[in-house]
Amino acid sequence: MQLHEKLIFLQNLTQTSNRMLALELQVDPSFISRLRTGRRGIPRNRRYIKAMAAYFAKRCTTEYQRQALSEILDIKQALTVKKDQLTEILYCWLCGESDEVGRFAQTFSTLNLEVLNARPNVESHNLNAGGAVYYGNEGKRAAAKAFYQHLLSLDSPGTIYLLTDEDDSWILEDYKFAKDTQDWGIDLAHRGFRFCQITPPASSANQAFDSMSRWLPIYMTGQADVYYYPRLRDNFHRRTLIVVPGQIAMTSSSLAGHRYGNATVLTTDQRLTQSYGGEFYDYLSLCRPMLNLHTGTDKLMQCFLRFTAINGTRIQRVSTLSAETAPPEVKAYYLEHLDPADAKKLKHLYLHEIDFSDNNDFIDIVHLASAIEIRSGNIPTPLSYGGYTLHYTPELYIIHLKNILHLLKTHDNYHCIPLPANEVNEIILMVKDVQSALLIRKSPSLTVFEISQPEIVSLGREYLLQTAERIGSAQANRMKTISQIKELIRELKS
Predict the structure, then answer these.
(1) What would the mean pLDDT of 396-421 be, rounded to a whole number?
(2) Which one-letter DSSP state was computed for residue 420?
(3) Per-residue CA distances from 239 to 162, 453, 485 (Å)
(4) Which residue of 75, 248, 250, 323 pairs with 242 in a disulfide if CB–CB is 3.0 to 4.6 A?
(5) How many CB atoms lie within 10 A of CB 329?
(6) Are the beta carbons of 417 and 468 closer than 8 angstroms?
(7) Cα separation of 144 and 171, whole Å?
(8) Among the listed residues 216, 218, 222, the one whose alpha carbon sits nearest the alpha carbon of residue 109
(9) pLDDT tens, position by position, 224-233
(10) Rounded CA separation 375/440 (Å)
(11) SS3 content of the chain, % helix, strand, coil (to 5)
């Protein structure tokens, strides 16, 4: 759906006239009319989209409206209940990031790590020996809180082993609880606890990325190891198991499609928790690493080495011109500027030569800056990150553009896809075949998510392919791209 179609849907759903929406946004009604008719695309000033999202989220209060949003957005209805949460979802949808990969990337890019340090106001409580049984979704939430409180009472941190593939409505139907569980996890990570998680099967893209988004702040602490089971599973029988062997365990089971009435057992019996721990270890032995978080230079280098060693089609979306297409003159410019030794080592690795003779396609979705932006000196070079920012000069940008032209004319397997300015963000996504995906955030410090679960990697690959096809990656557009680059070079020279 295009923006105007989405706008028509939301206005009809909430019985909002152009004048009503214009009054809310403090714009002329003709602005809304142009958006609604498709004569104007997504505004470059995203605050208008944000205001729209907040307005429509505020007006979607009935069961019918929430059901309609659930269907059109392909999300669980529980996610439409809270206004703030729905605002973010509608904002991503209106901006064109309606798919799961786009929403996850948006979450990754906007996550404020500074707000993750506050500790929840929850008192510790040591459970009596033995156990308790809780019923229904409300009971399961109470069990989870008691589990957290018990961990707070322990003398020393341990590893929390966790798997769950049950319906997650017991979490999502209570927005405050969903936020609390995230805060509890972050708090435990800061106290020294580690998480070992076996993710549910990626049977649903929504489920997979919803789960990853909820866990993202915990992953960012660096205290989580994440695995997946590589073979087909019985998706009818569902299980939740959270255990600190020798200390406490929480477990429940259910059948697919049945969300309510299941019992949750919480136990501190030492032998029983050890037994549950052994059950988890047995399952873990059959699993493979799903993702890794990299921040240290040595780990980043190893990560990029693994990625580049994979044979297959490469497709990526970057926020400026790609480092891989930089000619020697540009690379020399990078490296002559003094940076910390670790950063320089990483740059040497990342600026490796791409071999275009192996016949593997390289689809490069890039941002071509305007001549005005380039002359202003505000366009960062590809390897600017954190506190190390280096900007293009017009002369340097021209040299880089000429090399891209050379690659387009000499290598049929290289494809350059200029990304429209209103779709540019700071997140980099690279996918190699269906084997590996790298999600890269440059600021405030360089952070890389390395994802290896094939189903998740495939979703990332499909997201980028659809982006390329939407913009235009056919041979006809190849000539259009060449003309566009030549025109930009002429502007910069004039």
Answers:
(1) 92
(2) P
(3) 11, 21, 55
(4) 250
(5) 13
(6) yes
(7) 10
(8) 216
(9) 999 988 876 6
(10) 27
(11) 50, 15, 30
Tokens at residue 62, please? 């009935």
Burial 391-424 (b: 16+ CB within 10 A, else e): ebebebbbbbbebbbebbeeeeebbbbbbeeebb
Give me the domains of the chain, ranges plus CATH numbers.
Answer: 3-98 (no CATH), 131-290 (3.30.870.10), 295-493 (3.30.870)
Mean pLDDT over 273-294 rounds to 93
pLDDT of residue 227: 92
Residue 98 confidence (pLDDT): 47
* Tokens 């387009």 belong to residue: 408
With a cut of 50, say whether residue 145 has pLDDT above it.
yes
> What is the distance between the alpha carbons of residues 221 and 192, in angstroms, rounded to a whole number?
10
CA atoms lying within 13 Å on the CB side of residue 127: 23
Determine the residue type at 337. Answer: H
Which of 122, 111, 192 lies closest to 158 in space, CA to CA?
Answer: 192
Structure tokens at 310: 């994979």
How do residues 115-130 score in pLDDT, each as one tens digit? 556 577 788 788 877 7
* pLDDT tier for residue 339 given thresholds of 50, 70 and 90: low
Between helix 297-309 and helix 341-350 the angle, nearest 10°, is 0
Q: Which residue is listed with tokens 């790298």?
A: 438
Nearest C-alpha neighbor of 424 from the set 359, 362, 379? 379
Token pair recorded at residue 390: 């280096």
Alpha carbon separation from 265 to 130, 256, 260 (Å, rounded): 11, 19, 15
Helix H segments across 293-376? Answer: 297-309, 328-336, 341-350, 371-375
Coil, helix or strand at residue 195:
strand
CB 166, CB 242: distance < 8 Å: no
Could you tell me the two tokens for 353? 């030569």
Residues 6+ apart with CB under 8 A from 487: none
Chain position carrying tokens 């255990």: 243
The sign of the CA dihedral 193, 196, 202, 204 is: negative
- What whole-number percentage of the chain has pLDDT above 70? 85
